[in-house]
Amino acid sequence: MAEALLIDANDDVATLLEDAAAGEQAAGVTLIDPVGRGHKLALRSIAAGQAVRKYGYPIGRATRAIAAGEHVHQHNVATALGGAGEYRYRPAAPAPARPALPATFEGYVRGDGRVGTRNEIWVLPTVGCVARTAERIAARAAAMLGDRVDGVHAFSHPHGCSQLGHDLAGTRAILASLACHPNAAGVLIVGLGCEENQVAALVGEIPEWRRPAIRVLAAQASDDEVAEGVEKVIALAALADVKRTSVPLDRLVLGVKCGGSDGLSGLTANPLVGRMSDRVVEAGGRVLLTEIPEVFGAEQMLMDRAVDDTVFGAVVDMVNGFKRYFLDHGEPVSENPSPGNVAGGITTLEEKSLGAVQKAGRAPLSDVIGYGDRVRRDGLTLLEAPGNDAVSCTALVAAGATAILFTTGRGTPLGFPVPTVKIATNHALAQRKPQWIDFDAGTVLDDGFDAAEAALIDRVVAIASGEETAAERNEEREIAIWKRGVTL
């Protein structure tokens, strides 16, 4: 008998936890088709046009009659998503309170009270023309500073010139917010001189309280831009003369993200991360959720958790605005999931979204912020950004996330400016790619959520306190900026 998981008693499908052949028994029915791990089988007959339910919610409609025991996937189910929606605020009852978690981590307390999980110097180019210059400065300075800092890192990108209006403003906002990050004791901004994204304008978007930790370099005006840049980084290292201090969990700012998802993402890793998110919020900390296209089909669940009408209205505006963004470019709102998601068992965007939003746990939604903005309230915040892994994780870091919990069923080596904890949805990935994966959420199916939650908390605390992630060991650190406008 093959093992399968039924999530909600009203569901029409169950998810296979292992590959199964036609004729095998699973979830009380006989399989008509072979069904792979993470894929779904029908538990009962489903009529053509009928909604198909998983997680207790519709994940699409049957495109033909489906018999009990059939493989349920894109050959017989299609999305029911359309354009912008009309929503009603139905405040959800708050989740039951749990005992406070006494966990602490060893962080770097900054002068403004924020806490970093790393003590680094960041080098940010204003424009792609000096991206390699920034990298050379960082490499040379890192060799000179040694262990005086946790690292010197340049974050290159191809933007900053030939941009106009809102597009240029987005690039500038992301870089200005990155320059404010508490993981960076100091920041060197490297400009060329003739670019659209002028250094003065960028610095003008950095708050006054942060500017003592900022140095600037204009490459065209310098006789030796690399030597001058290294000198400025060495001077910034004086600001990194701080030690780790024991601080409570509420000083953590957690970004949550999924990428390379599979049919187990919504069953193991994402709900496990949701428990971690709730722990941080319960402690008084901050959690950031993004990937707006990956809430389509599950948006009402988030809207019902809004703390008031204002936050509810902001969610509606953001979701519908993102749908219009797709439609204005001639694309359907339901183009997601990706080929890898489909191969892993995810059939429609509704199914993907219902699994994805579980990363946010059950906490009330306290705020909604735009792309390039910085987190401003305790609790759960919804952040504007697309689903693209690199773009959305960069937005999470710019918003203030000091660690990212990144769930994956297919695997990815990507890393970002802050510790990026890769959480596998299944044992097979964790065992096959230990060079990518930091935590195996497949243990949820072996030991239950409580044991897995305790283990994940210990892992996150260790990483926030200085233990390297797989991505850090592999020197996988990058940013990507959301380009939405014309290029000159």
TrEMBL record:
Asked whether the UniProt record includes Iron-sulfur among its keywords, one would answer no
Is Cytoplasm given among the entry's keywords? no
Q: Where is the SAF domain?
A: 11-78
Q: Which UniProt keywords apply?
A: Hydrolase, Lyase
| Biological process according to GO | D-galacturonate catabolic process
GO MF, one example: lyase activity
Q: Which domain of life is it from?
A: Bacteria
Q: Which Pfam families match?
A: GD_AH_C (PF20629), GD_AH_second (PF04295), SAF (PF08666)
Family membership noted in the UniProt record: Belongs to the UxaA family.
Write the protein's name: Altronate hydrolase
Q: State the organism named in the record.
A: Sphingomonas rubra
